[in-house]
Write a structure and sequence with these properties.
By secondary structure, the chain is mainly β. The protein has six helices and 27 strands.
């Protein structure tokens, strides 16, 4: 860390030495034309920019004719260095949310990292999201400034201590955006909204960057988990548990190119948890068409239209039936609007309110998708004469073993009914007794997985537990 501070300070000093009072800024423009062929051959195009020594601030503006949405071009920036997948030269990404961005030694636009501006060949990265049949001209104007920078702000330190101790069903969401990508609330505003709605945790998952870390994230009553929504041309996935300056997972991946598994495995080795976002959606290039690598630990089931949610749950069940242990999560994907961020939500059974504990609960499947944050979770267990297991556990039994199924429903949810789901198929529907308990007996005939749903009087799903896995020997 001291070495990093020294290098940053040396770079600032070099920039000040090279500062020329007679020339405080210089502007350069270039025009590039792109066609649908360019989009098909390589989704990302790189426009070189030569940054002179002594530059302390770099401002990039790009303009093009959107043709009413027929053209959509995204923006990102690389400093001198490799353009290969996972390159540390990546300085940030704003997608299509900004037409002007600034990167300075002391500060930067949302979605970009401030810091030293090494001279040499930088690259403006253009993501060809949509290109009309006649093509599109993109004008890129870069302004190089040599004005003295302000004070360099270090990355705020994070509190490693848990916010709450002891096991509980903590409530939060794992997919939300800020102004660091295409959300409407700043990071601080989003966290305050989570606090006002009495959420215990929130994962900030901006598109293709983790620059929300530049804001002091710690609050005494809301756990903030650093994440990233990795936005590839063949679907999106969240990575939870990232952290540190300029940390990110590369998004420049196409289905079938073999890079996805490697990138996910590297993130997993760093302690991160990976989940597929909105597997089925009407958003262009947002539906999941990649393979599902072994590193995938979660999948969203409560995002989009009713049909999309049903198809997402079908995909989840397909993976579970194939033997994958994949946790269902809520998929709030909050961007904007007056509606609450805590609807739907995720309840996780964690040993404490800390990032490691919440991520561990996600890995282990100790989670329930709930319709809103006001609803307390049901308790679901399966027992034999020798053992009792809960959501996320595995029960190994001889064939024919009697299984005692028990569901306990909080008072506020007792007008609902309980559905028993085995291997993705609803096999029984039970009313809830006045004491909130549902009990039943089943016999272990074959291996599989069981979960329960709560359905309200209008037929709406209000709770979906993750499975208990049963192995029959």
């Amino acid at each position: 860390m001291q070495g990093l501070r020294f290098r940053r300070a040396a770079a600032v000093l070099a920039a000040l030495i090279a500062f020329t009072p007679s020339l405080t800024s210089r502007e350069l423009s270039v025009v590039r034309h792109f066609t649908p062929r360019d989009q098909d051959v390589d989704r990302y195009e790189y426009v070189p920019i030569s940054v002179p020594p002594g530059t302390t601030r770099l401002t990039i503006t790009y303009r093009y004719d959107t043709k009413g949405g027929a053209n959509v071009i995204d923006l990102g920036v690389f400093e001198p260095g490799s353009l290969a997948l996972g390159s540390p030269a990546f300085r940030g990404w704003s997608g299509g949310s900004r037409d002007t961005v600034t990167i300075g030694i002391d500060d930067a636009s949302p979605g970009y990292w401030p810091g030293p501006l090494p001279p040499g060949e930088w690259h403006v990265m253009l993501g060809l999201y949509k290109v009309s049949p006649e093509g599109v001209d993109v004008t890129i104007t870069t302004t190089f400034s040599r004005e003295p920078p302000g004070a360099i702000k270090p990355l705020p330190t994070r509190n490693a201590a848990p916010l709450k101790r002891g096991p509980d069903w903590y409530v939060g969401i794992v997919h939300a955006h800020t102004t660091e990508s295409d959300g409407v609330l700043t990071t601080s505003e989003l966290i305050e909204k989570a606090r006002d709605e009495r959420l215990d945790f929130i994962a900030v998952t901006d598109h293709n960057n983790t620059t929300h870390q530049r804001v002091a994230l710690d609050r005494p009553d809301v756990l903030v988990i650093t994440g990233e929504e990795v936005t590839t041309p063949n679907g999106h996935f969240n990575v939870w548990g990232l952290g540190g300056e300029r940390d990110y997972v590369d998004f420049r991946i196409r289905a079938g190119d073999g890079a996805l598994s490697t990138l996910m495995e590297k993130a997993q080795r760093r302690g991160a948890v990976i989940g597929i976002n909105h597997p089925v959606t009407d958003c262009l290039a947002c539906t999941w068409t990649h393979e599902v690598p072994a590193a995938v630990a979660a999948i969203e089931i409560a995002n989009g239209s009713l049909t999309a949610r049903q198809q997402s749950m079908a995909m989840w069940d397909t993976l579970l039936r194939a033997g994958r242990r994949i946790t269902a999560v809520e998929g709030r994907d909050w961007h904007r609007g007056p509606e609450p961020i805590g609807a739907p939500v995720l309840r996780v059974r964690a040993n404490e309110l800390s990032t490691p504990a919440v991520l561990d609960a996600l890995r282990r499947g100790r989670a329930i998708v709930m319709a809103n944050a006001r609803m307390p979770p049901p308790e679901f267990t399966i027992a034999t004469d020798a053992a009792t297991v809960q959501i996320g556990d595995t029960l190994t039994v001889p064939r024919g073993t009697r299984l005692h199924v028990r569901v306990e429903v909080p008072p506020s949810l007792r007008t609902a009914r309980v559905e028993w789901v085995w291997n993705g198929e609803t096999l029984a529907r039970w009313p809830i007794g006045s004491d909130g308990r549902v009990t039943d007996e089943r016999y272990a005939a074959s291996s599989g997985y069981a979960r329960v749903h709560l359905v309200d009087t209008d037929g709406n799903l209000i709770a979906v537990t993750n499975p208990v896995f049963v192995i029959v020997r």
